[in-house]
Specification:
The complex is a heterodimer of chains A (about 300) and B (about 500).
Chain A: E1 5-11, E2 19-24, E3 28-33, E4 38-42, E5 50-54, E6 62-67, E7 73-78, E8 83-88, E9 94-99, E10 112-114, E11 120-123, E12 130-134, E13 143-147, E14 154-159, E15 165-170, E16 175-179, E17 184-189, E18 196-201, E19 207-212, E20 216-221, E21 227-232, E22 238-243, E23 249-254, E24 258-263, E25 268-274, E26 282-285, E27 294-298, E28 304-309
Antiparallel strand pairs in A: 1-28, 2-3, 3-4, 4-5, 6-7, 7-8, 8-9, 10-11, 11-12, 12-13, 14-15, 15-16, 16-17, 18-19, 19-20, 20-21, 22-23, 23-24, 24-25, 26-27, 27-28
Chain B: H1 3-11, H2 24-44, E1 76-79, H3 92-111, E2 117-123, E3 145-151, H4 156-178, E4 182-183, H5 184-190, H6 192-195, H7 198-212, E5 221-222, E6 228-231, E7 234-236, E8 242-244, E9 252-253, E10 262-264, E11 270-274, H8 277-284, H9 287-292, E12 296-300, H10 307-319, E13 325-328, H11 333-344, E14 368-371, H12 374-383, H13 392-395, E15 398-400, H14 403-413, H15 426-437, E16 439-441, H16 452-464, H17 466-472
Parallel strand pairs in B: 1-2, 4-5, 11-12, 11-13, 13-14
Antiparallel strand pairs in B: 2-3, 6-9, 6-12, 7-8, 7-10, 15-16
Classes of the chains: A mainly beta (about 300), B alpha/beta (about 500).
Chain lengths: ~300, ~500
């Protein structure tokens, strides 16, 4: 049983170079690329116009960008090694709130993730450390958790929506789940041997999806640490994963430019789309509004494409 | 910095090796080594053993170089440069006059016991692309630093520096007057125990050229050729000898092309630069090369190119500007930096890029990047999608970036050439993809393709120059028939 998704709109040349990250809010999608600026497009207008550009956010380019699900907060990480926190007001205008400067040297922070309420930021790093910071500006963004791993490059990180768990995926295939309440390792998950490039908690924080160069998407039970499913079908490295708001579907994107939608209930792929012939770095569901379910793809072709579920 | 670099730096005869604004730590280490070597070995270097410092042309009193003859009074400063920087032609006579005059003034100063001598040299060593403040307003050439060498100096090291400089100037002066060309290696071997190591000579020669704002070849000093070349080209010398790129199965040392030579490139449809010698040899010993060699030229400078290799390429390009030149380098930060060195030269040797008319002399800005790029690696992996077991690093020759690679890539992102407003953003894009995926790959990764690297290269070259092929109807390789030309088969 397959599902139909139609191309709603494509923003060509959304960025002058590879789009590494998309981060949606309820009315906008923030986008980051190898260029220095963050560009923000409106998702409430059928033309998806550019509404704001944060110029010179990271001079050497931006590799990670995240937004909080329930709060107007965002964070970006650049190739020069800095992490910046952003906030927006009622009008949807974004501004810099500050930089995380606590102890981290350039290059120490790689992937980033925000909790749903925007109060916490988790980061992975090249030396394998996983950190959690409070985004409390008055307190100067203090580091509140520091997790040691075996030192393999942490390529990806995620925070569960309830803020209880941090998960990290590493170059040596390790996947760790940490309990933020206790500050301890909950599970070291049976890995996929090859680099893990993306990890993502389900909205209810019960499942963790992880994937990477093995081209397999693995589902784990967060509480037990058991692997509960395997999705196979991608022929390129899997670079990005995102759960739909209801947790029914999982969106994946691969280095061979293919995006797939998986139905969790049946453990099957229900749709495949191609985003040009360049790596698909990022694939994100948009928060469900009045319209039908939508997702956005961004990658090496410098374009952002929006898809929506076909009616019926 | 790994051992290989260290090794290259210390022992490659190259010297001519132009490191393209390599990472800071490299430079720092280089400086350290230089100083260390000086300090360690100066003790060993007994002035008694040192070669007699005979001025080659003037026959001055050699003793005058010894500090005992000089009493400290008022200092004198000798500037190697002429004050009128606007002077027109810096031809050979001008250079001879400058160097000669300079030597004379040193001798005069010493004979007159006029006190402390101070020589101002300009240097570009130790400048990186990163420090943009060294770039002049036009962004064309980095502004050199100045270095002062005094005599008698406060330390044995300063005395040694002065001796080295004067000795090199003498040798250069003699070369210019006799109209012979010396290699930097020759200079070093004249007095190995004075110069201690090749890089000392390299540095002073480059600094002298930099100070005079001329290219090193105008001092009649060349690098020892380290590059290899093969292919269907011929150079006819006035004395009747002939250099043919197909004569040696293993390739020939990069020849020097003189103005009086006649160059024949009529059969050459492409020129291919290969980063590494091993890959160059592997291409030359492959079956497809038998066909490819009749149509093109392959060369390698074994890593970062020396001036001799760059000059040779530039001469071919000047002779036949329509021949496309391709670069085949590793997919890693050094591979891209090597390609950029062929294209835009070494930042530290920017004075080499100036001709009498002020036009860049050695750059190859039209160089085309053949590979290896991310999508080549991606395709490799796609073909092996069945192999689900084992890591990619094991099965496909992909490697993880080292800390040094990541540092170098990040530094390169700061170079003007890789800035986001650069009209050719592809280097930036590839460097970023490298950092995000944390992978690199050597050229050999393509050896796993059907037919190996040689077949891959010939196909890539064909694709790249397809329009040209269509136009002039050049023959195609038998194993890559194209729709344009079915006549051969």
């Amino acid at each position: 049983m397959s599902k139909q998704y139609l191309t709603l709109h494509t923003i060509d040349d959304a960025h002058p170079s590879d789009i590494f990250a998309l981060a949606p809010t309820s009315t906008q999608v923030l986008s980051a690329s190898g260029s220095s600026s963050i560009r923000i497009y409106s998702t409430t207008d059928p033309e998806f116009p550019l509404v704001q550009t944060l110029e010179g956010a990271h001079p050497l380019g931006i590799h990670h960008l995240a937004t909080a699900k329930e709060s107007p907060k965002a964070a970006s990480a650049g190739f020069e090694g800095k992490v910046k926190a952003w906030g927006s007001d009622e009008s949807g205008e974004w501004r810099l709130e500050g930089e995380i400067v606590d102890q981290n040297k350039p290059g120490d922070v790689w992937a980033i993730a925000l909790s749903a309420d925007g109060q916490y930021l988790a980061s992975s790093s090249i030396n394998g450390k996983v950190n959690v910071w409070s985004l409390n500006k008055a307190e100067g963004f203090p580091k509140i958790r520091e997790y040691e791993t075996k030192g393999s490059f942490g390529l990806c990180v995620d925070l569960s929506q309830d803020g209880r768990f941090t998960a990290s995926g590493h170059e040596n295939g390790s996947i760790y789940v940490f309990n933020n309440d206790t500050g301890r390792l909950s599970h070291s998950l049976a890995g996929l041997v090859s680099p893990i490039r993306t990890v993502s908690f389900s909205p209810a924080s019960k499942l963790l999806a992880a994937a990477g160069d093995a081209r397999i998407i693995a589902l784990y039970d967060v509480n037990s640490g058991e692997q509960v499913a395997n999705f196979t079908g991608h022929s390129g490295w899997v670079l990005t994963l995102d759960w739909s708001a209801t947790g029914e579907y999982l969106l994946s994107g691969s280095h061979d430019s293919k995006a797939k939608v998986w139905r969790i209930e049946t453990r099957s792929c229900v749709a495949t789309h191609s985003h040009g012939d360049k790596p698909l770095w990022t694939a994100k569901w948009l928060p469900r509004n009045v319209r039908s379910e939508m997702f956005a793809l961004g990658g090496g072709n410098n374009a952002i494409s929006f898809y929506r579920e076909a009616a019926g | 910095m790994d051992f290989k670099d260290l090794n290259d730096m210390l022992f490659s005869n190259s010297s001519s090796q132009e490191s393209y604004a390599s990472a800071w730590d490299d430079q720092l280490l280089e400086e350290d080594l230089l100083d260390e070597a000086m300090e360690d070995e100066l003790i060993l270097w007994d002035p008694e053993d040192s070669p007699v410092l005979t001025p080659a042309t003037s026959g001055q009193d050699t003793d005058s170089y010894l500090p005992s003859h000089v009493t400290e009074t008022d200092g004198e400063e000798i500037l190697l440069t002429s004050s009128d920087s606007t002077c027109g032609v810096r031809d050979k006579n001008w250079v001879v006059a400058r160097v000669g005059e300079f030597l004379e003034r040193i001798v005069d100063a010493l004979v007159e016991n006029s006190g402390q001598l101070s020589i101002i040299l300009k240097t570009r060593s130790g400048i990186t692309r990163r420090k943009t403040e060294y770039t002049d307003q036009n962004g064309l050439m980095p502004v050199p630093k100045t270095m002062e060498i005094t005599f008698p100096g406060g330390t044995t090291q300063e005395a040694w520096k002065f001796t080295v400089l004067v000795r090199i100037l003498e040798l250069i002066h003699k070369c210019l007057i006799d109209d012979v060309t010396m290699t930097k290696r020759d200079i070093y071997y004249r007095h190995p125990n004075l110069f201690l190591k090749q890089s000392v000579v390299d540095r002073y020669v480059d600094d002298i050229a930099c100070t005079l704002s001329i290219s090193r070849s105008q001092l009649n000093v060349t690098a020892a050729a380290k590059g290899l070349v093969a292919g269907n080209f011929t150079i006819w010398r006035p004395d009747g000898t002939e250099v043919n790129g197909l004569h040696e199965k293993e390739g020939i040392l990069i020849p020097k092309i003189q103005a009086s030579d006649t160059l024949n490139l009529s059969s050459v449809h492409w020129i291919l630069i290969i980063e590494k010698e091993a890959t160059f040899h592997s291409l030359l010993s492959s079956v497809p090369w038998n066909f490819m060699s009749s149509q093109g030229v392959a060369m390698t400078a074994k890593g970062y190119p020396d001036l001799a290799s760059r000059r040779f390429l530039r001469q071919l390009s000047d002779h036949s500007p329509h021949i496309p030149i391709f670069a085949f380098v590793d997919f890693d930060p050094d591979g891209i930096a090597i390609m950029l060195t062929y294209m835009y030269g070494s930042y530290r040797l920017a004075h080499e890029n100036v001709t009498h008319t002020g036009l860049p002399a050695l750059n190859l800005p039209d160089l085309r990047w053949l590979g290896v790029k991310t999508h080549h690696i991606c395709h490799t992996s796609a073909t092996e999608s069945i192999t689900e077991r084992g890591t990619l690093a094991d099965t496909q020759g992909l490697m993880r970036l080292t800390a040094r690679d990541r540092k170098k890539a990040t530094q390169m992102l700061e170079w003007d050439l890789c800035k986001e407003d650069n009209p050719q953003p592809k280097w930036r894009t590839e460097l970023q993809a490298m950092l995000v995926l944390n992978i690199k790959a050597e050229m050999q990764i393509l050896e796993t393709r059907p037919g190996g690297i040689a077949t891959w290269l010939s196909k890539q070259i064909e694709v790249q120059q397809d329009p040209a092929l269509g136009k002039d109807g050049a023959a195609l390789y038998p194993f890559q028939p194209s729709s344009d030309d079915g006549l051969l088969f």
